[in-house]
Amino acid sequence: MEIIETTTLQQQSMSSKFKRICVFCGSSQGKKTSYQVAAIDLGNELVSRNIDLVYGGGSIGLMGLISQAVHDGGRHVIGVIPKTLMRPEASVSQGFCSSDEYIIALSTVCLLTGETVGEVKAVADMHQRKAEMAKHSDAFIALPGGYGTLEELLEVITWAQLGIHDKPVGLLNVDGYYNSLLSFIDKAVEEGFISPSARNIIVSAPTAKELVKKLEEYVPCHERVASKLSWEIEQLGHSQNHDISR
C-alpha cells in the first residue's frame, strides 16, 4: 500500500496543465554538444511531466533528438510535415514517378527530414503545417535553430499579440543562444515598435525544467489587437480545421 501511495504522489507531483507542447527546432544539430543535450533534456522533461510532443516531423538534427527522447519515454509524438517533404513511396505505387525518380526524391527528402517517429500528419503546405501544430498544442517552445525555427517562433508570438491565442511561448536559451534575439526585442520595445506589455508574451530560461515551470506559471497580460472570440468566429466562417486558438 505504501509503495502504491508513493507512486501515486510522484505521478501527481509530475503532472502538468499541458497535454501537448509544440517544439520548434531545426534539422541541424548545431556545433555545440550542449544544443543536442538540451534537446534530449527537453524531451525527457516532457516525458517526466506526462506531456506529449508536437513538432515539425523528421528525425534529423534537434528535431530527431527530441522526438526520439519523447517517443522512447512512452509519450505520444505528433509530427506535422508537408507532403512535399514526406517519403515519396506513394508516388511510385501510384505511378506518378519512376523508380529512378523515386531514388532521387527519396535521397533529397531523407537529407531534409529523415523518418518521422510516432503519428504523422501530412499537410498541404508550410502555412497549414504551422496552423496544425498550433491547433494541437497548449504551449510553444523554441530550441536553438535557424530561419525556419525563428519564423515559426515569431509567427506564434504575433498570433498571441493579435489575440488569436493565449498560449505561452518560451525560448530554451541554451548557452545564451537567444541573447541577441532577446536584446533585439528589448530594443524594439525601447524604440516603440513593440509595446511593453507585448514583451511579456515570450518567456525564456536556460534549462528545460526552468522553462516548463515558467510556462506553467504564465498568465497573459498583454494588450490584444482583437478578442480571441472574434478570431474564432472568423475562423469558423472559413474552416474549423485550422482553428489555432483551441
Automatic annotation (TrEMBL):
Family according to the record: Belongs to the LOG family.
Any GO MF annotation of the entry: hydrolase activity, hydrolyzing N-glycosyl compounds
Identification of the protein by name: Cytokinin riboside 5'-monophosphate phosphoribohydrolase
Function: Cytokinin-activating enzyme working in the direct activation pathway. Phosphoribohydrolase that converts inactive cytokinin nucleotides to the biologically active free-base forms.
Keywords, in A-Z order: Cytokinin biosynthesis, Hydrolase
Keyword Hydrolase: yes
Entry's EC annotation: 3.2.2.n1
Highest taxon of source: Eukaryota
TM spans (from-to): none
Top-tier EC class: hydrolase
